[in-house]
Amino acid sequence: MTKMLEKIFYEEFIKSGRFADSDKKESDFDARELAMGIEVEAEHTVNKQIAKKIALDHLAEIPDYYTRLAKMEREAKQDPRERATYDFDLR
Q1: d(CA 14, CA 8)
Q2: 3-state DSSP call for residue 27?
Q3: pLDDT profile of the chain (91 residues), mean per 10
Q4: Distances, alpha carbon 18 to alpha carbons 15, 43, 63, 80, in Å
């Protein structure tokens, strides 16, 4: 990446988003939750910095985002008769 592209990438992507706009620090998050997030987001990019940034954005909004995601994925793989049911009022 050229220096100019690196600067644009850093200023426009890394320094923006839910995490960047919050008052949180990386150390505010559970290290295991962040590690899970980086692993999940690495499915979408080979750039670890991008995966970490996306994970931090999700965690800034929902601190246990990846635990919830893992639970949802486990439930989705279960036999439909064993899944939890939810009653939503969609009015």
Answers
A1: 9
A2: helix
A3: 77 83 93 98 92 96 97 86 67 62
A4: 10, 21, 12, 35
